[in-house]
Amino acid sequence: MTETKILSGKEVASAVYDDLSSRIDRLTSEKVTPGLAAVLVGDDPASQVYVRNKRRRFENMGLFGETFRLSDDSSENDVLALINDLNGDDRFHGILIQLPLPKGIDSDNLLRSVRPDKDVDGFHPENIGLLAAGNSRFIPCTPKGILRILQFYNIETSGKHAVIVGRSNIVGRPMALMLSAKNDTGNATVTVCHSRTPDIAYYTRQADIVIAAVGMPSLIKGDMINDGTVIIDVGINRVEDDSEKGYKLTGDVDSESVMNKASAMTPVPGGVGPMTIAMLVENTVEAAERLIS
Fold this sequence. Notes:
By secondary structure, the chain is of the alpha/beta class. It folds into 2 domains: 85 residues, Rossmann fold; 134 residues, 3-Layer(aba) Sandwich (Rossmann fold). Helices cover 39% and strands 16% of the residues. It contains 10 helices and 11 strands. Helix 1 packs parallel to helix 10, helix 2 packs across helix 10 and helix 6 crosses helix 10. It is globular, with a radius of gyration of 19 Å.
């Protein structure tokens, strides 16, 4: 039996914020306040919570954050017009398009319309291309946060086999680029599994590190991993239960069955989520720093 270490994203995020404080003070002395514009289209409850949490963190750090809300029936041109205005607004060093978007709006088109030097989510094709070339401007927040967790807890990636379950542009694909990169936080052999992978367990049983990012509750079970595997659970799913809230939050990993088999794992909540927000703050600070450098 292996004693499983819990990899607290909250602890790592706290260290990130401590480091950012001095950088923010330096910017303030130059009369620069890092600013983020969050674009929220529609009334998806989860999206509203995410945006509210991000804005609260910005305000707690003494940064400037503003949410721009558009109704569910807004056209794609309405959103594009707003983004165009924000691209030219010097108050904002970063622009965030909260996903998912209502049906009928092409998210790729909107993400392409954000100025690359304000794309603090790292989703613009130019920034993805720079990441692939090993010369990144902005690294997508969730994969960046995952690497910081691994670094903080001294989990080696070089020479390891990392299996990523999920191939989204938000997590899976950039994560594969980063883990396979020729640098101190990469040098892993990477396998990407997805909905058409016939036997995911065949691959996860070979992994030193499993990163689950598919949005399927408890997909990864204890019998799908080897003793000593490191588990990064990106999923955050609402599962109905008998509690007062009517639901509980669970990850893509069945935490009970992997406990005492995995060597380390991130909890849900409190694992990857806090780091995603921390990296958004860091990317916005970096955008402001480039302005004065």
